[in-house]
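User: quick one, fold this
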Amino acid sequence: MKKISLCSKIISIVGISILTLFIIALGYYKFQVIGGEIIEVEANPEKGFNFNYYVYLPYGMKESEVEYLLVETNNAGNVSDDHKVHDKDAYNLIKNGIGHMIATNLKIPLLVPVFDRPESDWQMYTHALDRDTLMNNKGKLARIDLQLINMIGDIKERLKDKNIVVQDKIFMSGFSASGSFVNRFTALHPEIVQAVAAGGVNCMPIIPAAEWDEQKLIYPIGVYDINQIAGIEFNIDKYKKVSQYIYMGSLDDNDTLPYDDAFDSDERELIINFLGTDMHERWEKSKNIYQQLDVPATMVMYDDVGHETNDVIIQDIVNFFRAQSAE
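Assistant:
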């Protein structure tokens, strides 16, 4: 066994420490995983994001063939004031989630933000981008939709340093609460989304209209008051340029309508009066409205599937995004 002198050990430790400090100074960390590399980027309030985020770079990604950045938002499934809980969930998501499989198949980079879903402010269902979240303009969780846009801009600059150049617009994917997030985010910011796949959305994707059947559709049921609560003018023309894949399982009974963290009493009453309480009824009415508005959304109900995904669904999503890349 080769002996190492104490002096050599000290030099080695110092060298590692300097390297660690250098990596920290850059604001990111690297992790090797099966099938690629994961980078963690630290929060940077000066650049407009108060939370860290992860990026997955799959092996085999040829720089000349990279076209889009895929974004999948985190969804811990519960509330916690401990950021580590949400961080762990986001890391597991980028390693093993739907977005990981999509990015691996398409050989494109994947970004997952680490937004908290606080127990102390449980009405803010941040992971679903609900009304309380969009209206919040204070603290670390102020306007996380804009924070996500700033994260996207930040990683694009970092990817350029690796000679990876992506399109200005992005792909988005999400399921359950994160499915609602990307579905609603697309209505708020259609100018930056090329294509979006949203699943498990309670059979009520956001209605891309301010009013319908003499009902004022407040956010997140519709877009009636997004200018008032978020300073956003809904642009139906830009929205129609986004390709959408919205999917549910026929056996999915995971309905957030009764829960106060997802909807307040006014929102709940509007949903019941406008879309109904039955999930399949809501799905058919929403689907019909999308068709009447000529929104290019493929809306699929998978038979004998609950609140889950499977290999068939994943492959359909991959094919959907691949078709967008080919255009």
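User: anything notable?
Assistant: The domain at 31-326 is CATH 3.40.50.1820 (Rossmann fold).
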